[in-house]
């Protein structure tokens, strides 16, 4: 079983979009019994809140199923429980390091690295543009899935 944790600041926009998108493509690939997907926040600001309405709207538009959920904060234990901790931006990297310490097992990846870009996933919390975020998330998740297929 490969375990993936998508991480952003609040766990209501980007990381949840990635979680639901990745679950969808993993299911379509018939790999749900081999790949487990979740998401979390580096902050406590949105703990308990459901996915942002803009994220839900974009997922609905794209035919990606989602369920009600509550934002959670990443924990030190998550580092042991997940094989891939996929962050959305450099701020997530700094905040995640405060929670888990050094990435001694090289499990932390920046989402856009999977498509050969070192930039951040665009944050709709600030831009209001969920289309751009979806483009970043879908491209990075598609590339990650291709990588994972070679590991299975």
Automatic annotation (TrEMBL):
Q: Does the keyword Hydrolase apply?
A: yes
Any one Pfam family here would be LMWPc
Q: Where is the Phosphotyrosine protein phosphatase I domain?
A: 2-147
Q: Which UniProt keywords apply?
A: Hydrolase, Protein phosphatase
What Enzyme Commission number(s) appear in the record? 3.1.3.48
Q: Which domain of life is it from?
A: Bacteria
Its Gene Ontology molecular function terms?
protein tyrosine phosphatase activity
| Catalyzed reaction equations | O-phospho-L-tyrosyl-[protein] + H2O = L-tyrosyl-[protein] + phosphate
Q: Which family does it belong to?
A: Belongs to the low molecular weight phosphotyrosine protein phosphatase family.
Task: Please identify the protein, giving its name as recorded.
Answer: protein-tyrosine-phosphatase
Q: What is the source species?
A: Veillonella absiana
The uppermost taxa in this organism's lineage are: Bacteria, Bacillati, Bacillota, Negativicutes, Veillonellales
């Amino acid at each position: 079983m490969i375990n993936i944790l998508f991480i952003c600041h609040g766990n209501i926009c980007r990381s949840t979009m990635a979680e639901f998108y990745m679950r969808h493509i993993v299911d379509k690939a018939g790999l749900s019994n081999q790949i487990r997907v979740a998401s979390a926040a580096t902050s406590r600001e949105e703990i308990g809140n459901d996915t942002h309405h803009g994220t839900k709207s974009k997922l609905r538009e794209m035919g990606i199923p989602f369920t009600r959920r509550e934002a959670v904060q990443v924990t030190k234990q998550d580092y042991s429980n997940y094989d891939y901790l996929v962050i959305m931006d450099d701020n997530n990297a700094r905040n995640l390091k405060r929670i888990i310490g050094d990435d001694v097992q090289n499990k932390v990846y920046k989402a856009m690295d999977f498509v050969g870009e070192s930039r951040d996933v665009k944050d709709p919390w600030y831009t209001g543009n969920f289309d751009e975020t979806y483009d970043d998330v879908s491209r990075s998740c598609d590339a990650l899935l291709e990588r994972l297929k070679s590991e299975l």
